[in-house]
Design a protein that fits this description.
Blueprint (H helix, E strand, L loop, with lengths): L5 E8 L6 H12 L5 E8 L6 H11 L3 E6 L5 H11 L4 E6 L9 H9 L4 E9 L4 H17 L12 E4 H8 L8 H8 L4 E8 L11 H15 L2 H30 L8 H33 L7 E5 L3
Parallel strand pairs: 1-2, 1-4, 2-3, 5-7
Antiparallel strand pairs: 3-8, 4-6, 5-6
Helix pairs in contact: 5-8, 9-10
Length: 314
């Protein structure tokens, strides 16, 4: 007899108390007829609303529900890592708690996995909860990352995905503090993958937790974690300004030697050059500082998170 395979569904939760009951209901209905054993791993990422209370009630109701209760808000990427670390499944499905990652896709994802696909990605064709400005920012975000980063990250492919256990074990070995799951998976270069397209519905309740500040922070983390191109750009920029200063000096000497009427006080040009060079130096120092800061954080070797793992005793 074949042993029934275990499917872990890891769900990141941050202040989603209004979504959790509906999400659990839809999840339970979706997987009820599937020939697998499931565990629902809800990662409570330092929620300040009633999310933990609701999760505790679901845990008492259903033994498949398990809670990874983070000590504070560590962020979405760390929350997924914590869920991955505690998952026991033969594969893991990652998803958000806002119902914009439709649970109805899970049977199709598992069907592809059962036919030998190691990685099932999702491609969001449209987001009904996203306005025009957000869509423009999203395009700028991916254009910037893929221009500067060495590892290209496909646009509109959210963290709603299925990953086979053998690649999960590889991911568990990557313990950097500043992490981007999409980038790490793309870095592994998994060829045996499939893509499922979907349209993201409006959030069932609440508002998105991603704002412009978080998007910019994520972009910086993505670029610095996967590329040293900003350092090269800083070097090229320094060379360019040095050449510009040399050419400007040659121009002034040429004018002085060949134009008897040429008068030059030098104050304006000196001021411009001082401001220009000072700005270039600050930009370059800022880029170098970002990389040194990451080295400093990684060298401490602190745990990525601290959490309690809660499950119902049988």
């Amino acid at each position: 007899m074949h042993q029934i395979k275990i499917i872990s569904i890891v769900i990141s939760v941050f202040n989603e108390d209004k979504n959790l009951p509906e999400l659990y209901k839809v999840l339970a209905d979706t997987v009820s007829d599937l020939p697998y054993s499931f565990e629902f791993l809800f990662v409570n990422d330092g929620s300040t609303d009633n999310s933990f209370t609701i999760l505790s009630e679901l845990l008492q109701k259903d033994q498949r529900v398990k809670i990874v209760n983070l000590g504070k808000n560590f962020g979405h990427e760390i929350a997924m890592t914590a869920g991955m670390d505690h998952a026991r499944g033969d594969c893991i499905i990652f998803m958000d708690a806002d119902l914009q990652h439709p649970p109805s896709l899970i049977p199709d994802m598992l069907d592809k996995w059962s036919n030998g696909i190691d990685l099932v990605l999702t491609l969001r064709k449209d987001n009904k909860d996203q306005g025009l400005s957000s869509k423009i920012l999203n395009k700028i975000f991916y254009a910037l990352i893929n221009t500067i980063s060495d590892d290209k990250i496909p646009a509109n492919m959210p963290d709603f995905r299925l990953i086979d256990k053998k690649y999960i074990e590889v991911l568990k070995g990557m313990r950097e503090q500043k992490r981007l799951f999409r980038g790490l998976i793309n870095w592994m270069g998994i060829k045996n993958h499939a893509i499922i397209e979907f349209e993201a519905p409006k959030r069932y309740a609440g508002k998105t937790k991603y704002n412009v500040r978080k998007l910019i922070s994520l972009a910086l983390d993505s670029i610095i974690s996967f590329s040293i191109k900003p350092l090269r750009i800083a070097s090229y920029f320094g060379i360019f300004t040095a050449l510009l200063a040399i050419l400007l000096g040659i121009y002034f000497v040429f004018e002085f030697l060949n134009n008897p009427d040429y008068t030059f006080s030098g104050f304006g040009t000196t001021l411009v050059m001082v401001v220009l060079m000072g700005s270039v130096q600050l930009v370059v120092l800022g880029i170098i500082g970002e990389y040194i800061g990451r080295i400093h954080l990684e060298s401490k070797k602190r745990p990525l998170y601290f959490a309690d793992f809660i499950e119902r005793k049988s």
